Amino acid sequence: MIVDCHFHVDETMLTLEKMIEGMDKNDVTKTALIAPMNETMFEADSNFQHNLQRLFRFLILYTPQIGFKIYDGLVKDGYMKLYGNSYKIFTKPSNDIVAAAIDRFPDRFLGWVAVNPMIPESVDEVELYLNKPGFIGVKAHPFMHAYSIKALSPVAAMCESKGIPMIIHLSSELDSYKYLPENYPKLKLIYAHAGIPFWKKLWKYVRNQPNVFLDTSSDYLNPSIVKQAVESLGYRKILYGCDGPYGMKKFNKYDYSTKKNWIDTLQISDNQKEFILGKNFLGLLKIL
Ligand SMILES: [Zn+2]
Question: Which residues form the Amidohydrolase-related domain (predicted)?
Fold first, then answer.
């Protein structure tokens, strides 16, 4: 069974029906959804952008001090700054959008409860959503919501005690990838986008952390980084995901095959690919 562990709902970009169609075409049985993080964000298909993305990956990999500065510059005053455009970041995640999507396609969608620990009301509603059908864990975004990883302590303690996973998009806060594993060693943790912005340093650390995993989602990555992450950590620690609809250029034209190809073309056995494409993730979930 193929399960995408990281995808957002934003019907101003991609409708639920189109998502199901794309999943069907690519044999994706289930997708774990997250509330939209920011307002509608289409990207232009330009060489300029592709070159910038390549440079960004290179800097993060080889000169992190410079890479982190660029990474940090992507988020400013509640806006995501991308290629000269600004997109409003949603401070309080709308988990009701995910609940509604699960209601409509209960066999196809799972849900992450997105939380912003800087908003007490957002923390209060986590348990409420976790009790709704299909919700499997908690998503947090210290990068876009601009807080220290330590702010996640109460939520992490709760997830650890419930035995449910968290998925986290890290900020560039120094050594922040060590904080939750060190303080909540039984917490099941997925670092989004292969642990951006730390990548190699984080991979080295995660190798010895039994409950920490990475996802392969988003255009922050490319096939080479996914390959390096798998080589560094082994196939049991890597989870397939897309991070759509972000990265798409036109309404309802999301290409599901790209991210799946990143896994399909790895030089590992089909059995090992099955773990990345779904078994590892399903192993973390209680409800399935
Ligand atoms: Zn995402």
Answer: 3-280
- Is pTM beyond 0.70? Reply is yes
Rounded to the nearest angstrom, the distance between the alpha carbon of 80 and the centre of ligand 1 is: 13
**How far apart are alpha carbons 61 and 68 in whole angstroms?**
10
Strands laid side by side in the 79-82 sheet: 75-76, 79-82, 85-88
Q: What is the pLDDT of residues 120-161, one digit of tens each?
A: 999 999 999 999 999 999 999 999 999 999 999 999 999 999
What CATH number is associated with residue 137? 3.20.20.140
Strand partners, 38: 89
User: Per the structure block, which two tokens stand in for 67?
Assistant: 């890479």
- Count of domains for the chain: 1
Distance 185 CA to ligand 1 centre (A): 24
Cβ atoms of 179 and 239 closer than 8 Å: no
**Residue 33 — φ and ψ, nearest 5°?**
-95, 150
